[in-house]
Design brief:
globular, mainly alpha
Length: about 325
Amino acid sequence: MLNKLNSKHKLILLSVVTILIILLYLFYNINPAILEYQLTGRLRKAIAMLLVGSSIAVSTVIFQTITNNRILTPSIIGLDAVYMFIKTSLIFFFGSTSVVVLNDHLNFVITLVGMILFSLFLFQILFKSKDQNVFFILLLGIVFGTFFSSLSSFIEMMIDPEEFLSIQSAMFASFSAINEKLLMMSGVALIVMIVIAFKIRPYLDVLSLGRDHAINLGVNYIRVTRWLMVMVALLVTISTALVGPITFLGLLVVNLAHEFMKQFEHKYILPAAILISWMSLFLGQWVVEYIFDGNTEISIMINFIGGIYFIFLILKGRKVA
């Protein structure tokens, strides 16, 4: 039956299901006596889930398009590890009571600058060469991820235990510990990024054909991919700064969007990935709160399922090869 639906009808179906899941999360088991208190708390988490889900979905769609590969995500090649390294380094060099750490907006901007510089460095390695072997990129991601995670762990062992507590909350994704001070700034930046992503969707369609085809069709490949890498760094910073790293969410939702839509055009893939990302986060958070009574975190569930799916994609790719 789903195969008979066209792409617009599939997007409408996804939108309806997403709205129903969001309403389920907001109003399930709500107590009328404390309606305002409960609803305010759930709305706060809902806004964070909308922002994080959009950031991860759009950043992964863009990154998979410019690398022309569906098993790579910004998290898998180590951008999350770089984010944690920058956060840990700021506390190590300036202390947990310095303005650089206590001022969330200043801390966000410094971290963002660090992420953009690293993404430009990564760009030099990944996109200057014509040979973008997926196994080389994966190996590079593992090396960068392990290297920066090890550096962060080393610094955490050297800093004061009280200072370590200040970064511990940023190490694991949780919608119970949202950085509310960054909601407004992140929301504005995210809306701008999403508008740009939809404006440049024809370029993304051409880039998905591969480097040589994109150049032959008149795209300034180096310039466009450099700016897209900066966008990816900004989106990863937004999602990680709000709730922490969720490694495999992007891999899951973007691949599910491709499987469901059976399309390559970004005018369909981008909204489908965002809607599936919202569905995953709201449904996952509902399961965490009402099935597991809040005894686990949504990132653990998503990383467990996403890790298995990642292995499945690797094995599937080997069979095709």
